[in-house]
Amino acid sequence: MAEPPAPAPAVPTAAAPALPLGRLFPLYAAQALATGATTVSTILAALVVGNLGFTSLIGLPATLISASAALSAGLFGALMLSRGRRVGLASAFVLGAVGAGLGFAGARAGLLPVFLLGASLMGAAQGGYQQARYAAAESVPESRRGTALGLLMLMSVAGSLLMTGFSGGVERLGERLGASPEVAGWLVGGGLLGVAALLMLVWRPVAGPAQRVAGARPGFAATFRQPGVRSTALALATAQGLMVTLMSLTPHRAHEMGVDHAGVAALISGHIVGMFGFGWLTGPLIDRLGVRVGYVGGSALLGAAALTATLPGTAWLGVSMFVLGLGWNLAFVSGSKALSRHPAAQGVTDGLGYVAAGAGTLLGGLIIARAGFPVLAYACAVLALLPLLSAWRAGR
């Protein structure tokens, strides 16, 4: 009787490659500093305009920031393709530092046009340095890119929390300069972006941005005729527009309710945690259950955030801002995953999101001035139903 064949030797499973954290550290640190700069400056821009006496224009800075980011993103993308990520990101950080300095000077002198110019330059810078996520993805093997991007999102949380802890220092700086904490925050933001630019001098990219292959992708019109693309764009633009509108204008409501600078900074930090702190959970959840779950969950949470912002008591504002961030996260991750199959639509869809955000903040400021914050919140709750249409049209 023949002996049974010997079992084949076990093949060792290759361990997942470790992330080059030492090489990535300057990039991650720069992203944390950039988020901190946004926390102490542009997010609170509505308060600066209101304190200058232009209450009906409190949504204008966020509108200019969104419009500038929409116009600059493609230009910075082209710069990074031709000169590399380090040059492109460093240029964006320097531009942001200049814009923050102008914003501080304009706000302190009471010159609204100068302040708005600084806000516009800050927006243009964001259109560039928000592309750091692509640099992080290019720095690791394909199998580890999700982890690298998740860590980059967590660094955004770290930067926001850092600035929350430093809110007392911002207040003291404002007192020394004879300015409000919101105005002093612009000077601090400029310093943070300057340090981020210096970090780019020591960061060594592993690879450059992927080169486009002519004729390899369908055109814009053909892409938007493909099933599911327009509904995905609707979900992304809606989530971005509602998130930026409420994020930008809720601090004004908190300020009117007597919340001090530290309290407003804490509200924003909670919002940032909701936006970025749960990417490690929402990504796998959507991979397992499908984008429809993300659209439905995002719609429900965005609507809940708008409604809870109208409730009495500052604690509800904290709940609203956190839920707003988490709802955006679900819709954004779902839409981004669905749109990853349609590269030709990605830039245009991002542009639609910026347009929605700019229009929302501008109109929202006017609505608050004429009808009050609750009317704006109820309108946002109705618009939050739009991703349900995306869920109905989408496949898994």
From TrEMBL:
Coiled-coil spans in chain: none
TM spans (from-to): 32-52, 58-80, 87-105, 149-168, 183-203, 233-250, 262-281, 293-311, 317-339, 351-369, 375-392
Span of domain Major facilitator superfamily (MFS) profile: 15-396
Keywords of this entry: Membrane, Transmembrane, Transmembrane helix
SUPFAM superfamilies reported in the protein's UniProt record: MFS general substrate transporter
UniProt protein name: MFS transporter
Organism: Deinococcus rhizophilus
